[in-house]
Hints:
Blueprint: H1 5-19, H2 26-37, H3 41-54, H4 61-70, H5 77-82, E1 96-98, H6 104-115, E2 119-127, E3 134-141, H7 146-159, E4 166-170, H8 177-184, E5 187-191
Parallel strand pairs: 3-4
Antiparallel strand pairs: 1-2, 2-3, 2-5
Amino acid sequence: MTTSPSEFGTAACHELLVRLAGRLPDRLLWRLREWLASGAHSAVAALLPRALLRNRVGLTDDERDLLETAVAGHAPRKLLDAVLTLATADEPDVTFRPAPTADTTALCLLAVARGESGCTELRQALRGNGRHAQRVVLVRADGPRPWALAGTLARLLRAHGDPAPCVEVLPAGDPPAYHRAALAGSTLLWRRPEAPTAGH
């Protein structure tokens, strides 16, 4: 539960960054999420509209509402108005397949997830094929600060050699198309015993 306007803006920023997975470059998205997890919301708010413009990423009306909440007071109106508008979010042009469940990285992710009281499910998938396939970690959590959990898991992936970690702490409700595809192609690493099974 958010308790201040600042946290309300941070929560909106987190949800928007989740929706931008697969639409902004991995390294840029990781950096924005890391700044958010580290408490640098103002830096994210200042950079995000420019990143959308530079990468020609448009937003739906709902996403634009999230952007305006996320960057309130940190970006000029003309910059927000310049962001492209979409009727519907782009469908992801990527494929996912199950990732190994017993490698060292997966075991470390599992240890962290089990220790987080708000974490209810941990899955992972590989996006793309061959040597350059990207690990995508999918988390369901009901804690009050999902961006902090995302940052913790991303730092762990960085420590294991991933230069642009993809950690998706999903919001409640129906996930975006990118995440539905990732969930469908993922491997379940762990689910808290009392957690309900989530439909994909």
